[in-house]
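Postdoc handover notes: sequence design on the structure in folder B. Input tokens:
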């Protein structure tokens, strides 16, 4: 969801290589804990979209910080374009990230 994905198919095709049963289980757990909300898709009621709840939105900065820390300290296969997006998002909070990724 931090990358703009909202449907099960978008998550599945996101490049992380997650199995569909694992994804379904994780989304179900996140929904049960009030982190995400599942709603019927606007054009096709058989499908659903997912969005962060207020509780999930509060977690987003923490998750971003963990991702950025991991990129700085661990090897990553993330494309440079994704790292750029994360750097931009990190700049929303002034002073939190003194140096861009890759330095």
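Designed sequence:
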């Amino acid at each position: 969801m931090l990358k703009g994905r909202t449907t099960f198919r978008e998550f599945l095709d996101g490049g992380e290589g997650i199995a569909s049963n694992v994804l379904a289980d994780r989304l179900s757990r996140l929904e049960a804990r009030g982190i995400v909300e599942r709603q019927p898709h606007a054009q096709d009621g058989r499908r659903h979209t997912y969005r962060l709840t207020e509780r999930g939105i509060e977690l987003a900065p923490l998750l971003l910080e963990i991702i950025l820390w991991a990129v700085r300290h661990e090897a990553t296969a993330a494309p440079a374009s994704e790292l750029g997006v994360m750097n931009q998002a990190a700049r929303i909070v002034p002073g939190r990230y003194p140096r861009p990724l890759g330095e």
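Context for whoever picks this up: The two ends are 27 Å apart (CA to CA). Don't rerun without checking with the PI first.
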